[in-house]
């Protein structure tokens, strides 16, 4: 059997095995294309109002006013934005509460309706929304379906590669045919969309492997000659998958911590990076614990624009970690995490990831349709063969 035929049948078998799962992940992937923007849009009603030359309140005062207005909530983090109209976001257990940066007035909680829908879509995308003990098995299913999809993309490139290069052969697989219907239409769409989306779709799918499996993460580090970090508990591949931006859980009960000096330390963190957009402070668990600031110069999904600064209470630098200071393996792992959603390239990257995910939907649909037509034709040929043999024997008699 020719090598191209071998790859064709393997390609077809992989599609039949993983088709429905790949279709589910592709559909939910399209729905999650602008997840970050949708979550932000859902909270767009909350704005800080600057009256005249008013200055932003110090961090200490913002937290104290928050506790007076929400005495039942224990703040665990605070995020400041460089934009004048953006509110201050205070994390309190599972919730995010917005506060006016100039008055300290609580504006309201983050919109849970949109986030709930996005969370449900992520659950379907990552583990088919299975809960309880079956989640690990469901996650393994989607992970291996993703691996099969990766093989389908790679084998598809080989299958589609023209035997002879000419404008006619390239046009046949690279351009849509107007007026095509039935099998011809499905074949044309499968080829054209597959060719044009192959490279970005390969990146989107390949970058999901480290998210799905610990061995995928280990492979990333070993590819650049590094020893993989120790595996974290909780399963998965050392990453949060698509989205994965849930709020922090409730902290263990602790003694009250003084907020004195936090404003000066926040200002010090903001001076660390020119062009910062947001700075998040994880509130310490004790009075002498160091303060960890996450500084972001991007939109939240660009690891090369993020850094972490740890200060002691005297304002001295304990540690500072930028993207460039990380090891190549860790850099590659971080980039792959956000290459899966396209966020590493900002809004244009998300758009491309969404488009090729939509292409994945069409590829699966047309692939299944072509396989079904092939099966029906095969059954018709098998049914016609006994009739032909009987006719041949009758003629011979």
Write up what this structure looks like:
The protein has about 400 residues and is an alpha+beta fold. It contains 12 helices and 8 strands. The chain has a domain at about 45-110 and about 245-340. It has helices spanning about 5-30, 35-40, 60-70, 110-125, 135-160, 165-175, 180-205, 210, 215-225, 260-270, 330-340, 345-395; strands at about 75-80, 90, 95-100, 105-110, 280, 290-295, 305-310, 315-320. It has an 8-stranded antiparallel β-sheet with strand order 4-3-2-1-5-6-7-8, with helices on one face.
Instruction: Bin the helical content.
Output: 40-55%
- Helices and strands, in order, run as HHHEEEEHHHHHHHEEEEHH
Physical arrangement of strands within the biggest beta sheet: 4-3-2-1-5-6-7-8
- Structural class, by secondary structure, is alpha+beta
- Strand percentage, roughly? 5-15%
Per-chain topology:
Elements: H1 3-31, H2 35-42, H3 59-69, E1 77-81, E2 88-92, E3 95-99, E4 106-109, H4 112-127, H5 135-160, H6 167-174, H7 182-206, H8 209-212, H9 214-223, H10 262-272, E5 278-282, E6 291-296, E7 306-311, E8 317-322, H11 328-339, H12 346-396
Antiparallel strand pairs: 1-2, 1-5, 2-3, 3-4, 5-6, 6-7, 7-8
Helix pairs in contact: 1-4, 1-5, 1-12, 5-7, 7-12, 9-11
Using brief descriptors, characterize the structure shown.
single chain, 397 residues, alpha+beta, eight-stranded antiparallel beta sheet, 8 strands, 11% strand
């Amino acid at each position: 059997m020719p090598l191209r035929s071998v790859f064709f049948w393997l390609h077809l078998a992989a599609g039949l095995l993983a088709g429905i799962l790949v279709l589910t992940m592709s559909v939910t992937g399209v729905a999650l294309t602008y997840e970050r923007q949708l979550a932000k849009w859902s909270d767009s009603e909350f704005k800080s109002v600057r009256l005249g030359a008013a200055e932003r309140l110090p961090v200490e005062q913002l937290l104290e006013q928050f506790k007076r207005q929400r005495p039942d909530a224990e703040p665990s983090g605070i995020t400041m934005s460089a934009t004048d109209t953006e509110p201050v976001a205070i994390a309190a257990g599972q919730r995010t509460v917005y506060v006016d940066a100039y008055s300290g007035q609580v504006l309201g909680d983050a919109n849970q309706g949109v986030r709930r829908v996005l969370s449900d879509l992520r659950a379907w995308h990552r583990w088919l929304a299975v809960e309880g003990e079956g989640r690990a098995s469901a996650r393994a299913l989607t992970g291996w379906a993703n691996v099969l999809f990766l093989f389908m993309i790679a084998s598809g490139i080989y299958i589609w590669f023209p035997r002879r290069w000419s404008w006619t052969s390239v046009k046949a697989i690279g351009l849509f045919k107007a007026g095509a219907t039935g099998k011809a239409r499905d074949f044309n769409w499968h080829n054209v969309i597959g060719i044009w989306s192959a490279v970005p779709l390969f990146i989107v799918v390949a970058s999901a492997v480290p998210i799905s499996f610990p061995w995928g993460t280990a492979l990333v580090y070993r590819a650049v000659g590094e020893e993989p970090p120790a595996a974290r508990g909780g399963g998965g591949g050392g990453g949060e998958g698509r989205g994965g931006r849930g709020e922090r859980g409730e902290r263990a009960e602790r003694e009250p911590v003084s907020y004195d000096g936090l404003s000066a330390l926040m200002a010090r963190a903001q001076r660390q990076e020119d062009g910062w957009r947001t700075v998040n402070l994880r509130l310490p668990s004790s009075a002498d614990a160091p303060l960890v600031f996450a500084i972001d110069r991007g939109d939240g999904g660009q690891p090369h624009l993020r850094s972490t600064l740890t200060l002691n209470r005297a304002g001295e630098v304990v540690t500072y970690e930028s993207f460039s200071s990380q090891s190549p393996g860790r850099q590659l792992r971080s980039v792959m995490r956000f290459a899966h959603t396209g966020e590493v390239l900002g809004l244009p990257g998300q758009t491309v990831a969404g488009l090729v995910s939509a292409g994945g939907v069409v590829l699966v649909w047309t692939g299944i349709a072509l396989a079904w037509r092939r099966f029906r034709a095969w059954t018709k040929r098998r049914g016609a063969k006994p009739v032909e043999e009987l006719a041949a024997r009758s003629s011979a008699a």
